[in-house]
Amino acid sequence: MAGEISLTCQVGRPRMSATGGSQVAYVLVEARAAGGAAAGAAAGSTRVPVNFTLVLDHSGSMKGAKLAAVKESVKLVINRLGMSDMVSVVIFDDNVRVVVPAQPTADKPYLTSLIDGIKDGGGTAMSLGMSAGLNELRKHATPASVNRMILLTDGVTYGDADRCRRIADEAGAVGIGIYPLGIGADWDEDLLDNIGHRSGGMPAEFIRRPDDALGIFERQLESAEAVSVRNAQLTIRLPGGVTPKRSVRVLPLISPLGQETLSDREALAALGDIEYDTPQALLLELLVDPRPAGTFRIAQAELSYDVPGRGTEKVRADAVVTFTTETVPPEEANSVVLNYAEKANAHRLVTRVLDEYKKGGKVTTRLHPNVTRMLDPETQRLLDQVSAGGAISAEEVKTIGNRTRKLTQKLEG
Amino acid sequence: MTVRCSLGHENPEGSAFCDECGERLDVASTQAAPAAVAPSPPPAPLAPAVSAEAPKLVVEADNTTFDLAGKTEIVIGREDPVSNIYPDVDLTPHGGEEGGVSRLHAKLFVTSGQYLIEDQNSTNFTFVNRQKLAPKTPTPVKDGDEIRLGRVIMKFQTV
Question: Cβ of B83: how many Cβ atoms within 10 Å?
Fold first, then answer.
């Protein structure tokens, strides 16, 4: 039965001018799991089993507080997993070792004692860890379980970045999402974001201080436990006279879309898992050619998804605009849609500033106060600094990136 | 067809934000939940009611006079045929574009004989006698007041 997911399309301007040239139209496509996790439980459906692998960097640089915090966090995850869940733990330096082969979490004291035995040492060869983790996950990966790799590192992998990307593609192809966590200031955010993106997971989360690790691991677990449907694929179809300008994911984070263009009129985006209480949303910016007065569909969204254990379902929604010769007062605009558009645009521009800065060139993008006003005071100050030709630390670069992509999360600071 | 931000970056018509600097290009539409803000009732007349003298706006830079007689609501801004915006007082030929006047910048209206001006969430704000107005808040104006939209200065006269 369909109905697990509600799909909606909202347009930035429900009425647009029928005169003049082509215009930009904003469309917010939102997919939301029906009810909350509580509603799912009340309906008698138990949560989808989680098949987790934790791939951990234990290189020499992890020594001390970082490794200690990570070990505590992993023990917490093991202790919280349920009877039907699977777990495996892989550690890597420039070698790899499967500390916990994939298994149910029946004997928790034994499993946590294995985690206690992890020591620091060696270099960083992340692809070895990813490959071994993927191997453990595949032993029990089924369409009826949530299969995720939590990948933690504090450094730059040595000479195998391309191999890491290929493993991410491989994982994505079999429905395994990778959720990277960077700890400390020295990890490569571009590579980790890319790994998350390619696999259908999430961009890297930043563990700024060892003390933050526990909470972040906990959220990773909660997110996996909240999965309602899997393998969500969104197809966007555009009628003649409508061309895509830009599209970006705006919920749960502002992030690029794993988008595949099927034809001029059709594009496919992989959304991965949809979790209870965490809607996914995309913002499309379209260029719409002039139309005579009347009501038209400017885009159609179709979402297909797998209900674990129960097969594939589909839902559709249309984005509709009324073209009119009357004057359309700006107040008619949908402020929710334009709010997402504004934040997505701010994220794009801040990312551009950071890219200019990271490439070592001059920062030429000038942010209007409309943009900086949305940012927290620390981020504003740091951006002012780089715009004035100053320097900021690698940790500050990561902090800005991490905060800016959360601009659409109302409750985050 | 394009719209430009105040720095001159070109954007396709209908863009709500500048692609290059993020400036809002269609300001009124981006205010969070405009419906939630109850329109404040117009304040009681502060000045003696003006009868139907000859209300007008005089642009300081070129002395152009806009006659407002016989109208109860006057939209001030810049004409934009693409968006179908035809303000009663079009400041395009009077330095409106360079002066940062929004397409729908301000509304002047009369209630019980009292003229009020209300900023329409303009990008560069409306000022009465150098005091910046809060957007969407009607403010009384009287004969001789200076009204500034962005950088374009006008005098409001009723005699």
Answer: 22
Average pLDDT score over residue span B6-23: 91
Q: How many CB pairs under 8 A join A and B?
A: 108
Which member of A22, A328, A333 has the closest CB to residue B84?
Answer: A328
Amino acid identity, position A119:
K
Q: Reduced to 3 states, what is the DSSP secondary structure of residue A384?
A: helix
Q: What is the C-alpha separation between A329 and A13, in angstroms, rounded? A: 10
The CATH class of the B56-157 domain is mainly beta
Question: Percentage of residues in chain A with pLDDT exceeding 70?
Answer: 94
Q: Count the residues in chain B.
A: 159
Report DSSP state, residue A187.
S
The closest alpha carbon to A229, from A399, A1, A71, belongs to: A1
How close is the nearest chain B Cα to the Cα of A409, in Å? 15
Residue with tokens 């985690």: A115
Sheet holding A50-57, edge to edge: A96-104, A86-92, A50-57, A146-153, A177-183, A205-207
Asked if the C-beta of A365 comes within 8 angstroms of chain B's C-beta atoms, the answer is yes
Task: Give the CATH number of domain A5-36+231-332.
Answer: 2.60.40.3670
Cα–Cα distance for residue pair A282/A252, rounded to 1 Å: 10
Q: Where are the domains of chain B?
A: 2-29, 56-157
For chain B, positions 104-143, list CB contacts with chain A under 8 A: 104, 120-121
Q: Which of A44-48, A154-158, B45-49, B152-156 has the lowest mean pLDDT?
A: B45-49
**B104-111 and B114-119 strand pairing:** antiparallel
Asked whether A160 and A131 are in contact (CB, 8 A), the reply is no
Domain definitions of chain A by residue range: 5-36+231-332, 50-225, 336-404
Q: Please tell me the number of Cα atoms within 13 Å of A116 on its side-chain side.
A: 6
**Chain A residues near residue B37 by CB distance under 8 angstroms:** none
- In contact, A148 and A217? CB cutoff 8 Å: no
Interatomic CA distance for residues A272 and A305, integer angstroms: 9
pLDDT bucket at A311, cuts 50 / 70 / 90 = confident
Round to whole Å and give the CA distance between A145 and B139.
62
A394-404 helix and A335-358 helix, angle to the nearest 10 degrees? 160
CB A280 within 8 A of CB A270: no
**Closest to A268 measured CA to CA, from A238, A311, A242:** A238
Cross-chain CB nearest to B13 (options A23, A342, A349): A23
What ranges make up the beta strands (E) of A255-360?
A: 259-263, 266-275, 280-288, 294-307, 311-324
Q: Can you give the pLDDT at residue A38?
A: 57
CATH architecture of A50-225: 3-Layer(aba) Sandwich (3.40)
Angle (CA) A161-A247-A274 rounded to 5° is 75
Could you tell me the two tokens for A311?
């097969």
Q: How far apart are CA A64 and CA A183, in angstroms?
A: 13
CA distances B151 to A11, B3, B147, Å, are 34, 19, 10
| Coil/strand/helix, residue A139 | helix
The pair of three-digit structure tokens given for residue A178, joined into one six-digit string: 């990778």
